[in-house]
């Protein structure tokens, strides 16, 4: 088989997968996890029912894939910690710039994935796989944000505080998905409001040196 033929086949596979993920996202957000059937996803994506089962196996696995794409912003297999925006948040020369980059990255992520996080919260009581994945996401987020604070401290950008662990945990909590969802439910804030709150919160917690 020639390379061009292989390339066309790979492109077709990728295009089919994108259609399935787009269809699944729409139905999960619109109808909720339990009301969304894999057959309905296949019909909306205009693929055979078997195609969805072969590619993803279960509805929980499909939702995890949809969430992964939303969190990353693309289908690349890179963690948040490996993304350029997070690396910039660790290396900008001034604290104000690090906070700005971090706020932008977190807020963009929540805009893309917030509705899907709500779906996961609905589903996790009956889907241990999703509950485990969401808990792993919480732990990863906590560690990334603690790393952000520790790096800024090591680079001499933070004033000394009596309780640095409190500082790390407060920043991590502010950036968790469930904090975003709670604010959205209770305040009715839009994207700009959330960005402003997160920027102010992080700036006040991270007293500059």
From TrEMBL:
InterPro entries reported for this sequence: Homeodomain-like_sf (IPR009057), HTH-type_TetR-like_transc_reg (IPR050109), HTH_TetR (IPR001647)
Any GO molecular function: transcription cis-regulatory region binding
Name of one Pfam family that matches: TetR_N
Claim: Transcription regulation is one of the keywords in the record: yes
Domain HTH tetR-type: 14-74
UniProt KW keywords: DNA-binding, Transcription, Transcription regulation
DNA-binding region: 37-56
Transmembrane segments: none
Protein name per its UniProtKB record: TetR/AcrR family transcriptional regulator
Organism: Nocardioides turkmenicus
